[in-house]
């Protein structure tokens, strides 16, 4: 192995160690900081310092010179030394951050022995303070030159000496235009503020800050915060004025957004407070009626008086239930848990049910209530019947409420779009009521709000109906709007998406009808009703004339002797000559084939006897539907099978259900609820057995599964709830356990509640409070079908 390399290194060290250090004395007289000696291996061999510093000779001598540098600068130092050793440079001067946190500037010169690098010596100067100042100036310069703030420097006379690049970027000016003087870029108002307030404040206090605007080159204003301050020299003399102008547009927008959010929150809080106050009134009012009427009913032996009290209590309880449902719906909406439950249903039948309810109040106010159902609207549709009915009912209720006596309310439905089975229907509810101002229209669909706070005082209501309706319509893929002027009524229009599900056909005129033999005369004092008759009859291609009162009708009848009318639609209540009197006249004038159909919003039973005596052949209720008119005409011309329950030619009452020979097991833990069920089912002939909790219900069914034909299952019960009881019954090994109908009977009425019932094995669901008619129809469906 060749060891010559090692021999050379040893010679260098020896020579370096024994070298003449007289140079150090000369350097020592000149340099006041540090004189250093480094050998060929870059190890410090000697060090002299004039003053005590952050390090001593003991810390340095014998150490590898690059280790004196901080980690980040060590590679740089090694590279510099390599260039010196290789003779690339005659000497090196460099600066680095030492491991002790101080900056030093080093000057090193090499020395040689027989042309071989033997080491170097040199001096170091502490330049920490100077370096830090340079670093500070560099980042200050970066802030000024690279920042987005508008910075300018002027002398004490206000003459601009410097404008930074950020000023040009902010204002859009090109730097070639020169310095940006205040007269050019400050808005007039801000320039005046600077002159009147800023300069004086700077001279007295040394600084000033104000808000204002600068004007960009394109003329657009920018909101700014302007700070001015004095720059002093080393003698504490004011020599310059600095201006720092910051764009605060985003800040102001943020402030405005926060202010708007704060205002909205405060308004919402106030609205909720008002809502709670209104709710207290709305809930306590029917509660007072319920408690009061029951108390009066219990204290009297007069049967008529009792019936009156209980009828009023029943009405108030239903009103209270509506309020509670609204509150629950709104809570679901705010929790974003409001869902739809779609199904196929007869749309016209649903509208009839809705209008039957609304018509009671319209009749009380003697209002003209009209339904315009376009013939292109499908008979059956697929969507959420309950929620759609809720929206239409709400709009009709409001229209009737805000329309004075003898006003008009019109419900119109038409198809606006169709693509395959997908359809979009439009529903319009118009009235001749008090109207709504433009200002208040924006509040209509907001939760906890009514258009005007005085409305709740004059008309009542929770203020939730329209907000709930809007959410339902949005979930059904539609939208809602209002058109109204004060004193000119209102028109609410909404669209919704559904699917056509034509399971039944539209009512049609009997195909064997000979139109030449039919002449129709409709007599009604409402122009809207007369227009409706003309519209429907035109679509049916049936000739139809209209008269506004009995006198006009008689005149028209006498003038039409050659081709007389044979079908008459006569309104019951008309000024001058009412429908009963007119019917008598028609029967006197007409022949034996003359048919009179009486129309009225009143119950047929109240006028049946008098009407039949006068010669009325049929009775149909307002509001009128196309199918009702078609069916009654078909009946009149002798078309078998077309007769509808809408036609009241015979006295009709409620449906009588016969469940004789059927046995029902009712699981219900509340005694009063069991009493209610007994009362509802008392006339049906059904056999009833009760279980006071789910565990007992399971035991009773297990002991005699063939005894029961149907189970009504409450959900919340002690021992075992309805879900667990149903699962236990379904798991029974008998065939009857798998097929017996189980209907949930609970106050939990949300979509997920119903789904939970079905998922546990139940067949259907009925909500509490129990609707007797609905429950009986459900029992009939499962027991007799």
Task: Give a structural overview.
- The radius of gyration is 48 Å and the shape is elongated.
- It has 785 residues and is an alpha/beta fold.
- The strands form five sheets. Strands 11, 12, 13, 14, 15, 16 and 17 form a seven-stranded mixed beta sheet that branches. Strands 2-1-5-4-3 form a five-stranded antiparallel beta sheet, sandwiched between helices. The protein has a five-stranded antiparallel beta sheet with strand order 7-6-10-9-8.
- Strand 26 (742-746), helix 25 (751-759) and strand 27 (764-767) form a beta-alpha-beta unit.
Which labels suit this protein?
alpha/beta, 27 strands, Helix Hairpins, 785 residues, Beta-Lactamase, 26 helices
Compile the SSE list and pairings:
Blueprint: H1 4-17, H2 22-30, E1 34-39, E2 44-49, H3 57-60, H4 71-85, E3 92-97, E4 103-113, E5 116-126, H5 128-146, E6 150-155, E7 160-163, H6 165-171, H7 182-185, H8 188-205, E8 207-215, E9 221-232, E10 238-247, H9 249-298, H10 303-334, E11 343-346, H11 347-364, E12 368-373, E13 380-383, H12 385-401, E14 408-419, E15 422-431, H13 438-441, H14 453-458, H15 465-475, E16 480-484, E17 490-500, E18 520-523, H16 527-539, E19 544-547, H17 550-559, E20 567-571, H18 579-589, E21 595-600, H19 604-614, E22 618-621, H20 626-636, E23 663-667, H21 671-681, E24 687-691, H22 694-703, E25 710-714, H23 722-730, H24 735-739, E26 742-746, H25 751-759, E27 764-767, H26 772-784
Parallel strand pairs: 12-14, 18-19, 18-20, 20-21, 21-22, 23-24, 23-25, 25-26, 26-27
Antiparallel strand pairs: 1-2, 1-5, 3-4, 4-5, 6-7, 6-10, 8-9, 9-10, 11-13, 13-17, 14-15, 15-17, 16-17
Helix pairs in contact: 9-10, 10-15, 11-12, 12-15, 17-18, 22-23
């Amino acid at each position: 192995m060749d060891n010559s390399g090692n021999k050379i290194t040893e010679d260098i060290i020896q020579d370096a160690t024994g070298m003449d250090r007289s140079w150090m004395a000369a350097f020592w007289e000149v340099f006041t900081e540090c004189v250093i000696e480094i050998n060929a291996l870059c190890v410090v061999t000697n060090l002299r310092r004039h003053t005590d510093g952050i390090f001593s000779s003991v810390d340095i001598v014998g150490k590898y010179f690059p280790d004196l540098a901080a980690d980040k600068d060590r590679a740089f130092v090694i590279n510099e030394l390599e260039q010196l050793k290789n003779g690339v440079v005659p000497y090196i001067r460099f600066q680095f951050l030492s491991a002790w946190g101080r900056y030093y500037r080093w000057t090193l010169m090499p020395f040689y022995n027989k042309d071989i690098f033997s080491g170097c010596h040199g001096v170091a100067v502490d330049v920490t303070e100077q370096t830090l100042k340079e670093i500070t100036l560099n980042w200050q310069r970066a802030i000024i030159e690279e920042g987005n703030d508008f910075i300018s420097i002027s002398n004490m006379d206000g003459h601009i000496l410097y404008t930074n690049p950020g000023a040009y970027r902010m204002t859009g000016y090109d730097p070639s235009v020169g310095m940006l003087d205040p007269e050019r870029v400050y808005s007039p108002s801000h320039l005046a503020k600077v002159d009147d307030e800023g300069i004086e404040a700077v001279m007295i206090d040394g600084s000033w800050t104000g808000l204002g605007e600068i004007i960009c080159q394109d003329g657009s204003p920018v909101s700014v915060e302007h700070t001015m301050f004095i720059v002093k020299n080393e003698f504490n003399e004011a020599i310059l004025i600095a201006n720092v102008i910051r764009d605060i547009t985003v800040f102001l927008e943020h402030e405005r957004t926060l202010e708007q959010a704060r205002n909205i929150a405060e308004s919402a809080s106030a609205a909720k407070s008002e809502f709670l106050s209104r709710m207290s009134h709305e809930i306590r009012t029917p509660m007072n009626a319920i408690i009061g009427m029951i108390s009066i009913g219990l204290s009297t032996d007069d049967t008529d008086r009792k019936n009156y009290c209980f009828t009023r209590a029943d009405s108030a309880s239903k009103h209270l239930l509506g309020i509670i449902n609204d509150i629950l719906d709104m809570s679901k909406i705010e929790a974003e848990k409001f869902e739809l439950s779609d199904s196929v249903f007869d749309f016209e039948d649903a509208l009839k049910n809705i209008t039957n309810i609304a018509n009671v109040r319209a009749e009380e106010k003697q209002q003209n209530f009209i339904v315009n159902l376009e013939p292109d609207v499908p008979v059956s549709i697929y969507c959420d019947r309950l929620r759609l009915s809720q929206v239409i009912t709400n709009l009709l209720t409001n229209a009737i409420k805000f329309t004075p006596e003898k006003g008009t309310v019109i419900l119109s439905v038409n198809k606006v779009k169709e693509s395959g089975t997908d359809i979009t229907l439009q529903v319009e509810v118009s009235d001749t009521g008090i109207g709504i101002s433009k200002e208040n229209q924006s509040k209509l669909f907001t939760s906890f709000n009514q258009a005007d706070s005085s409305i709740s005082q004059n008309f009542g209501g929770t203020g939730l109906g329209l907000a709930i309706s809007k959410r339902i319509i949005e979930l059904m893929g539609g939208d809602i709007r209002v058109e109204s002027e004060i004193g000119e009524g209102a028109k609410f229009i909404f669209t919704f998406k559904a699917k056509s599900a034509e399971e039944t056909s539209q009512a049609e005129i009997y195909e064997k009808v000979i139109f030449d033999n039919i002449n129709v005369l409709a007599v009604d004092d409402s122009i809207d009703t007369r227009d409706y008759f003309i519209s429907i009859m035109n679509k049916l291609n049936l000739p139809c004339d209209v008269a506004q009162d009995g006198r006009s009708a008689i005149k028209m009848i006498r003038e039409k002797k050659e081709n007389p009318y044979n079908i008459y639609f006569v309104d019951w209540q008309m000024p001058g000559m009412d429908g009963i009197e007119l019917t008598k006249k028609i029967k006197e004038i007409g022949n034996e084939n003359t048919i009179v159909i009486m129309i009225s919003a009143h119950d047929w039973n109240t006028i049946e006897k008098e009407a039949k005596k006068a010669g009325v052949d049929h009775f149909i209720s307002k509001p009128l539907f196309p199918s009702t008119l078609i069916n009654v005409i078909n009946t009149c011309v002798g078309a078998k099978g077309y007769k509808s329950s809408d036609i009241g030619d015979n006295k009709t009452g409620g449906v009588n259900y016969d469940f004789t020979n059927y046995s029902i097991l009712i699981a219900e833990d509340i005694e009063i609820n069991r009493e209610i069920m007994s009362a509802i089912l008392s006339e049906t002939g059904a056999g009833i057995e009760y279980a006071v909790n789910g565990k007992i219900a399971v035991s009773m069914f297990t002991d005699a599964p063939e005894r029961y034909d149907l189970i009504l299952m409450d959900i919340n019960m002690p021992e075992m709830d309805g879900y667990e009881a149903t699962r236990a019954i379904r798991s029974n090994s008998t065939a009857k356990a798998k097929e017996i109908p189980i209907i949930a009977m609970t106050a939990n009425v949300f979509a997920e509640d119903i789904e939970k019932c079905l998922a546990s094995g139940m067949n259907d669901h009925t909500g509490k409070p129990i609707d007797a008619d609905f429950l009986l129809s459900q029992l009939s469906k499962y027991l007799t079908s």
